[in-house]
Structure formats: C-alpha cells, structure tokens
Amino acid sequence: ADAIGRTPRILNSGEHDEEFFADLWSTIESGDVWTGEVTNERQSGERYVVNQTIAPITDENGTIERYVAVNDDITEQKRRERTVRRQRNSLERIKQIIESLRPINRALTRADTRTEITRVLCEQLAASDAYLFAWVGTDTGSTDDRSPQEWAGVEDSFVEGVDAGDDLFRQALTTEEVQASQEVPTDPGGRRRDRAIEYGFQSVAAVPVTYRESVLGVIGVYSARPDAFDR
C-alpha cells in the first residue's frame, strides 16, 4: 500500500550514482531490456541486492506504455561471495607469508652473529612480497629506547625519525605480544599518519623479540596493505 502511486525511487539506497540510473533509463526508453545488479534499501533501512531485469511494454503502435521489472534477491549470494573472497585473500596472504619465511629461515641458519641475524632478518622481510620494509631495535636498557640498529627497504631518514618508544612499540615490549596498527593513514595520531602517507605504508606491526624471560628488542614491520596483520 505504501508503494502504490510512487516511483521506484523509494528503494534508492544511495549506492549508485546518477550516471548509473541515466544508463538504465536510456536503455529502457530506447526500447531495450536492461539487466544489472542494484542495491536497494528497505523501509527499515536494511539494504539488499537484486539482479534486476527491466523491460518496456509497448502498445500496438510500438509506443512504450509502461515498464515491468523483475527482481531476484541475491543478497545472500553476494554475502557468500564476499566470504569466499575474504577467505581466498586470507589464504593468499598466508601463502605469501610462508613463502617469505622460507628464505628468512634458510638465511638465519647461516648467520653467525647477532648483528648478522638482525641484518638478514631486515633484508629478507623487506625483500618479500608481503612487506615493504623493516627495522630491528635491540635492547639498550631502557623501555623507551629501542633505537633501530638494522633496517632494510627504506631510507635512513625514515629510521632516524622512528620513535621506538611510541605507544605501539611500547605496548609490544610491555605485553610481549605483537601489536599492530591496521590502517595507519586514518590513525588519529598525526605523526605516524603523516609518515605513512610519505613512505607509502598502510599498516605496521610491532613484534617483541624475547628469549625466555628476557625482552631483547623489537621489530617494526611495514606493509603497503591495510589490515595486513591479522591473527
């Protein structure tokens, strides 16, 4: 009853721009059938997706009198497709990470000194497809100062401006658990956000380096992807 006498505009979700609807109307007003996916909105505000076919109905003279639209609700199908896509992307990331770890493990078995270990680690992380660059800060006796000793994949000027005592790295050292900022360009913290824009990274992880009861330092790992560091 609410829909009688009104146009399909009452279903408009705002998802599609004017060009989308201009193409739709141009197609059916020329006498052709239009088919496509449309995101509509219910009266409750809930959105749903339909596979829509709109066909013109003409009189005996070929003049268009009205249109008929057939809608197939494919909301659940689209939800499943998104789930599959997320799973596929997750598996691809896992594969990428595993492939990046193999050369790291091989190189580490050949390293003789702690300095060589940190250098190899940074070089291999930066060389992998999963990450942009990395640095390692070793323990200097202060939780506020794990200044980078080794780095790879980024200019010296970036490392000179690293604040290893900032909240992300401080929390990693305090909790001895990996901490991550998943979308740095949207972070409220201005300095990290500005550096993300300047150096092209989207997410960063702070990885504490521990051995038994000792915290040896921290690793900063940076990625060009948002949400690069899931569980």
> Into which percent range does the helicity of residues fall?
25-40%
Strand order of the largest sheet: 5-4-8-7-6
What low-confidence regions span 5 or more consecutive residues with pLDDT below 50?
A: none
Q: Which class of secondary structure composition applies to the elements?
A: alpha+beta
Query: Could you describe the largest sheet, including whether it forms a barrel?
Result: 5 strands, antiparallel
- Beta-strand fraction estimate: 25-35%
Q: For the record, give the distance between the C-alpha atoms at the N and C termini, rounded to a whole number.
A: 50 Å
H/E series:
HEEEHHEEHHEHEE
Mean pLDDT: 86
Multimerization state = single chain
Please give the count of helices.
Answer: 6
Notable features of this structure?
single chain; 231 residues; 37% helix; alpha+beta; five-stranded antiparallel sheet
Q: Strands, helices and their partners?
A:
Elements: H1 18-29, E1 34-41, E2 47-58, E3 64-73, H2 75-110, H3 114-127, E4 133-138, E5 148-152, H4 156-160, H5 167-175, E6 179-181, H6 190-199, E7 203-211, E8 214-223
Antiparallel strand pairs: 1-2, 2-3, 4-5, 4-8, 6-7, 7-8
Helix pairs in contact: 2-3
Can you walk me through this structure?
The structure is a single chain. 21% of the residues are buried. It is elongated, with a radius of gyration of 27 Å. The mean pLDDT is 86. A hairpin with a 2-residue loop joins β7 (203-211) and β8 (214-223). The two termini are 50 Å apart. The strands form two sheets. Strands 5-4-8-7-6 form a five-stranded antiparallel sheet. A three-stranded antiparallel sheet has the order 1-2-3, with helices on both faces. With 231 residues, the chain is an alpha+beta fold. The chain is 37% helix and 27% strand. It has helices at residues 18-29, 75-110, 114-127, 156-160, 167-175, 190-199, and strands spanning 34-41, 47-58, 64-73, 133-138, 148-152, 179-181, 203-211, 214-223. The longest helix is centred in the middle third of the chain and has 36 residues, at 75-110.
